[in-house]
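Predict fold of histidine kinase; 257 aa.
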Amino acid sequence: AREALFQSQKMEAIGQLTGGVAHDFNNLLMAVLGSLELVKKRLAYDPKVTPLIDNAMQGARRGALLTQRMLAFARKQELEAGPVDLPSLVRGMSDFLGRTLGPSIEVDARFPARLPPVMTDANQLETALLNLAVNARDAMPEGGAIIIRAAEKTLTEPQGDLQPGEYVQLRVTDTGQGMDVETLGRAAEPFFTTKGVGKGTGLGLAMVHGLAAQSGGALTLESTPGEGTTVTLWLPVATSQMASDEGPEPAQHDGAG
Ligand code: ADP
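Predicted 3D structure, encoded as tokens:
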């Protein structure tokens, strides 16, 4: 018991330290990014300079993404849950995703014509999707497609962590290198990464799992080495009561990319 206590105190200390550093780093990177954006705007296109600015901006964005992941994890943020229209949310991210992932990755997002809103934290869901998209890209060094789909699912009996009820399954599939059984089993563990020092934090899937669990949903992973990976995020459907209270944006389904 003493060892367990020590362990949890240690984890808390790591969490606080990570959170503090990540927070300051995130602010610094945002300042760098802001200045670079201004420099790029003021400068006429110069084939010798503009690509360098783009590189620096991409690096800063990547760094900000990493620190945001750490923050999200360290903070164990309270959920600010509300009804979220998934097609609108994904469409809203498509430009940012395109810039972050680069031209060799195609994002193919399609949704059913009628999809009920889900009950979750929209900001954290954006971070979660970004984490999944970055993982998918990293698994496809030669490029490829990230396929995003959603479907309604009714559970009449408990299934794993899930209570009976109405859910939307949000799936993110890649055609990348996949995971062996051991990696798959540990992938959502905090700080587990196969990406090497300085590249992975091992907090991406842990954050996604935390969000799913806090929303009353679940996370499942399927993967075949050499073929690819599907991450499924189960999110509870927002009841009509909640939906009419909060008034979600009307759904538009003209394709998110
Ligand atoms: P990180 O991306 O920092 O490594 P994650 O928690 O997001 O942390 O992922 C943990 C590990 O799970 C990765 O290092 C990788 O080995 C594996 N993984 C996650 N997503 C995928 C994917 N789409 N394809 C292949 N492996 C993946």
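Confidence is low (pLDDT under 50) at residues 1-5, 243-249.
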